[in-house]
């Protein structure tokens, strides 16, 4: 359990402020997060700490702190974790994060939502009965009963009722109309999507967090090797495809540990997803083996769940328009741990191939040495 800091001490020492009453923080660069969380530990709230990241991120990270850090004052834990997060960001990136925060606050203060249900109502209201049943059962057998697995680690299943798809598409159209009328310039979701909307920027982050609560148990079962059991942040956006906009998406990997890709609909032909093997950063552009090439049909209301490092793309939309709601789920713990590893043969196809080749070479060398030894006189 977390230790309680006296009220007078809390007033004297706010996060980021020095105080004689609080011990000095450790040398952060010498400490790491633990891979497995302390499930019995009750994390503190980090609301009001003034950070550019979600307070929930720090509460979830706290469970992964080393044992000796669990009982120190909140400001020491906060600075310890913030330093870990900042390791991933250059000063330029930190400035960008601050600007992004101001940008979002400006949009949310002026934009009037069309469907407030999407911002306030529990998202489970829109789940299909079969998905809700599997969630309540929360077992591998239950999830597999509603899923197809066209390739190892790529799952397809129905998740949302048509009503949700219609509401979200309508909300996106309202956002686009507001952007046109106000002539405000909005940021695109990422460098791969030229026509889309970053939903977090318009106040839908709460919906994303709630959805990730339901994806986390699935990810824990199927993607624990790449941080699926420690997802703590996300980025959600709409990507649109059609003849006069983006018609396809090139071969790429996502900035996520786990990706949920939901086809919202509209009438279209073509636009299937294709997958070409899982790769780590070092091998992202390595060759693809024919046996890992698969294509997945896009069906309105259905979801595709896969590793973010599973290389993929979207084929050309031949006619009509297709809209997808994509949620990138991330694990700060996995990203921290990944810095201390050089090989990922547990999930990277190329790392696996290189390990197997080293083993074959080692066995061949040992066999050759044995044969030479046997041929020597007196052997």
Which sequence of strands runs across the widest sheet?
Answer: 1-2-10-6-13-4-3
- Please name the fourth-level CATH homologous superfamily of the largest domain: q2cbj1_9rhob like domain
Name the beta content range.
15-25%
CATH architectural label of the largest domain: Sandwich
Query: What string gives the helices and strands in order?
Result: HHHHHHHEEHEHEEEEEEEEEEHH
User: What is the 3D form?
Assistant: globular
Provide the low-confidence segments as ranges: 1-28
Q: How many separate helices? A: 11
Under the CATH scheme, which class of the largest domain? Answer: Mainly Beta
How much is the radius of gyration in Å?
24 Å
Instruction: Compute the separation of the termini in Å.
Output: 67 Å
Report helical residue fraction.
Answer: 25-40%
Oligomer designation: single chain
CATH topological fold name of the largest domain? Jelly Rolls
What is the domain total for the residues?
A: 2
**Structural class of the helix and strand makeup?**
alpha+beta
Q: How many DSSP-defined strands?
A: 13
